[in-house]
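Re-run with default settings, no changes from the original entry. Doing this only to confirm the output is reproducible before filing.
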Amino acid sequence: MLNFVRRTIDHFFPDLSDLIEESCIDTRRKASIKYSISEIVLAAVFLHTCKAGSRNSMNQDRSEPVFKKNYRELFGFRLPHMDTVNDVMKKLPEEMLERLRKKMIRCLLTKRVFHKYRFLGEYFVIALDATGIFTFEKSPYPNCPYKTSKTGKRTYHQPVLEAKLVTRNGFSISLCTEWIINEDGASKQDCEYKAGLRLMKKLKRDYPRLPMCIVLDGLYAKQPIMSQISQNNWKYIIVWKDKTMYAQQDKVQEHRDAGLTVKSTKEKYHNQIKKTIREYEHDPNEIKYKTESIWYARLVEIHKNLKKPEEEKRTKFVFMTNVKVTKDNVMELIEAGRLRWKIENEGFNIQKNHEYHLHHKMSRGNINAIKNYYLCLQIAHLLDQLILKCKNRPFSKNKTVKKLWEYFTSALRIMEDFCFPKSGKRYNYRFE
């Protein structure tokens, strides 16, 4: 597996060191530089890749001569002390790591890694969602968002809004990040919706020509954000919650009563006992919402147990979109809308609960270091997904991710004769 990790990185990012050097300008005094900026950044990324969990845990691995030797043999860089890394993370502008992530994404787009997963054969599906990453008892830095309880107790927290490229095979790749923080010092708290408007501008700035379909939850079903997406020549699919946009829901009901909506049914037997019935409905007529033209699509998924009819389970999915819905694209459109859950499951859930330690404060009280460690985690997760989702990976598909990376780090600790071969087996990097 060690060789496969190295080959995967070399395959997708053959000039990773150059990408880091171009993106992260080293402003340290030359006399004080012991490790290059590439070695510093790669160590911060590897901290998350090897699931160390803390800087102290990484330093303990670093103290082992075999680990340091194998790390250098594998990546071609020395492994600095994590206190040295932390000193740089506190001062390195976050824009530099954002630039590095953007260049890595562009490398993958150039290699057409995600092209076969596009919506309608054209649009990359981008999911937006926010999550909380830290909580504090006291204000850790100026303008940190907070909540006040009924008793008057103030709790500080740090949420972040993410835009991730999601695919049906499970990719959840971070494209852009917007921090929800009261940067202007105003008494009114920043919020996810306002951060969403800012994130749209950053996405357009960073990927001006990338065709996108933005999938959003019901919070974003508002005219300003719809108009901004349309002005960027993107598409959107938004969850349409009950008891919202009453006038437009009444219009859909009028069309339903007049027989203008189109319905279809699809059945799938999983075995002799269980089957799923999918009831699709869409309105081919556009509905006006202020300055926007939207279309309606719905799926009711019925899970049946033929031996126990009382266990029937129904799930409803309703979406609004600026894509004209037809009988030919309604199924693909609803599946694209449902991909929004990938940012929750394959994105935030993996990073919080599967050894990435998103909640762990790698640096306390310094918002710049917090942002930089978070961006390094996103880069590490990107590399991990490329390694784990390769169809021809040379390790068991039955191993859990946790056990797989335990094996990886254990091999670095004990393989004294490890040496990366200069030539050998070539892997066909296709994804499931």
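The chain is about 40% helix and 20% strand. Residues 178 and 420 are 39 Å apart (CA to CA).
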